[in-house]
């Protein structure tokens, strides 16, 4: 990897604490793999509780000064970081594909998407407004100011190794918080390259710290119990999110949680079928099906079911599975062999209960990390695929009769992140849009995410929003000041 980078110094293998690159004393390290080949890409410092404490101490010390830095200056630093990320887009994309496997075009896209959050929050840093409220008596005035929450602990997943970080770090720094990040141990290199660029942009030492390590339980326990940490922000599974919320309760930390999804795509008989096929395709197979807003269940009205299956399967047959670095590949591997095993078990469960495979259904011929793009039909509610997030390139297509039935099926899950519908009926758009128990609803569109919108879920998909003006609120406290004797 290093030889392929235009700027080899972006490949960092140590943690980043208080402006210094930190190895452990014992030089303990863990291996990062390229899932396309199984090769070791790098050995990264395996840090633990002690280094997490050091990082929190550094972040706390830096917070005292960073909170005083004028918004315009915080904004300029963020803007410089954005420019550096975009100037190094190609290298960051290469690093990402090497450690995560996604096809290089998607990695380039994610770097730009991730950077857009830095740009956005550089702008929003200048728009943290307070309020002056009416008073109950004539001799007093009531004011509201917004202040940084304090030190933030962030834990991020491997599926978007860049954007899940910038979505958290950029609003935190814009608000005046400092941050300690624990990236997924599968994909620490993207996080470290971002830290290197932030350092070059000129953020003061201790403002942005990265603790790399495999003992996520202990690092997470320290982040959630240390009284200096005032907020935990997490993207990952609902199981781990609940643990972190429980641990955070002891010191009443604020939490933002982006957890699991089980996104339905509702395709009604009046839909533009070609658009619905393309939308479902994008929503299902991006990042080899490893996104939390991936179409997990495709629900199609009975009168168009056969035609949808025909057209959709034809499009799925065009995917080229292969090494993410090859420009010919349109879909890469899954992150680990364990992830492949999880997909296999969900497919086997559905098939054993009567689902039929339209295309795919097997581990890819390219190797153990690959799974073929797959379409399953004749699904029913008894199958695990109806309830569980598949996190792989498997599209289960369910059938429904009425609008009411479609909404009931869509809502029959504890998750509530994203849902999509295809219809031309304006009345239905409102009825279904309001009835769907989801934080985000795509209407005749599945590419719904950007830095300008509030990304987040309801029910067990989490709390808080990332991106947009709302994304900054999660890093701010409201303070009321009462001025008397006027
Ligand atoms: P995924 O299935 O996407 O890997 P996880 O929720 O297991 O989702 O992991 C997301 C992030 O949470 C990763 O950085 C992982 O290391 C971290 N993590 C996993 N378990 C814990 C835990 N008990 N405490 C803190 N962090 C954890």
UniProtKB/TrEMBL annotation:
CDD domains with a match to the protein in the record: ALDH_F5_SSADH_GabD
Taxon lineage: Bacteria, Pseudomonadati, Pseudomonadota, Gammaproteobacteria, Oceanospirillales
Family: Belongs to the aldehyde dehydrogenase family.
Record keywords: Oxidoreductase
GO biological process: gamma-aminobutyric acid catabolic process
The UniProt record lists the keyword Oxidoreductase: yes
Organism the protein comes from: Marinomonas alcarazii
Keyword Transmembrane helix part of the UniProt annotation: no
One Pfam family recorded for the sequence: Aldedh
Name recorded for this polypeptide: Succinate-semialdehyde dehydrogenase/glutarate-semialdehyde dehydrogenase
The Aldehyde dehydrogenase domain, residue ranges: 21-480
Active-site residues annotated for this sequence: 258
Single GO molecular function: succinate-semialdehyde dehydrogenase (NAD+) activity
PROSITE patterns: ALDEHYDE_DEHYDR_CYS, ALDEHYDE_DEHYDR_GLU
């Amino acid at each position: 990897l290093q030889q392929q980078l235009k700027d080899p110094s972006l490949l960092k293998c140590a943690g980043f604490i208080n402006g210094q690159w930190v190895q452990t004393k014992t030089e303990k390290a863990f291996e990062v793999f390229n899932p396309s080949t199984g090769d070791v890409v790098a050995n990264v410092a395996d840090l633990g509780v002690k280094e997490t404490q050091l990082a929190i101490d550094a972040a706390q010390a830096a917070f005292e000064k960073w909170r005083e830095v004028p918004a315009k200056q915080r904004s300029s630093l963020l803007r410089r970081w954005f420019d550096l990320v975009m100037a190094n887009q190609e290298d960051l994309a290469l690093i990402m594909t090497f450690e995560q496997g996604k096809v290089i075009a998607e990695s380039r896209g994610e770097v730009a998407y991730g950077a857009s959050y830095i740009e956005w929050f550089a702008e929003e840093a200048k728009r943290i407004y307070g309020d002056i409220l009416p008073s109950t008596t004539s001799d007093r005035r009531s004011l509201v100011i917004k202040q940084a929450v304090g030190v933030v602990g962030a834990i991020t997943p491997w599926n978007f190794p860049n954007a899940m970080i910038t979505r958290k770090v950029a609003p935190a720094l814009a608000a005046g918080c400092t941050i300690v990040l624990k990236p997924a141990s599968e994909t620490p290199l993207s996080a470290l390259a971002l830290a290197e660029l932030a350092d070059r942009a000129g953020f003061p030492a201790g403002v942005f710290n990265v603790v790399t390590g495999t003992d996520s339980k202990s690092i997470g326990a320290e982040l959630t119990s240390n009284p200096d940490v005032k907020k935990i922000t997490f993207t990952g599974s609902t199981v781990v999110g609940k643990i972190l919320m429980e641990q955070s309760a002891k010191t009443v930390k604020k939490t933002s949680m982006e957890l699991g999804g089980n996104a339905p795509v509702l395709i009604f008989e009046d839909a533009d079928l070609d658009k619905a096929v393309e939308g479902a395709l994008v929503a299902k197979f991006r990042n080899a099906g490893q996104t939390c807003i991936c179409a997990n269940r495709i629900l199609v009205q009975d009168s168009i079911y056969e035609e949808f299956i025909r057209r959709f399967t034809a499009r799925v047959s065009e995917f080229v599975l292969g090494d993410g670095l090859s420009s010919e590949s349109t879909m890469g591997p899954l992150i680990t062999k364990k992830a492949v095993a999880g997909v296999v078990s969900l497919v086997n469960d559905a098939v054993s209960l009567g689902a039929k495979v339209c295309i795919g259904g097997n581990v890819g011929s390219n190797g153990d990390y690959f799974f073929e793009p797959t379409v399953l039909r004749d699904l029913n509610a008894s199958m695990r695929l109806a309830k569980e997030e598949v996190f792989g390139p498997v599209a289960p297509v369910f059938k429904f009769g009425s609008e009411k039935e479609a909404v009931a099926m869509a809502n029959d899950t504890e998750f509530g992140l994203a849902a999509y519908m295809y219809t031309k009926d304006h009345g239905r758009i409102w009825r279904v849009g309001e009835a769907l128990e989801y934080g985000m609803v795509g209407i005749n569109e599945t590419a719904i995410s950007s830095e300008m919108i509030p990304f987040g879920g309801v029910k067990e998909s989490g709390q808080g929003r990332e991106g947009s003006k709302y994304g900054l609120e999660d890093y701010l406290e409201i303070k009321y000041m009462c001025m008397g004797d006027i």
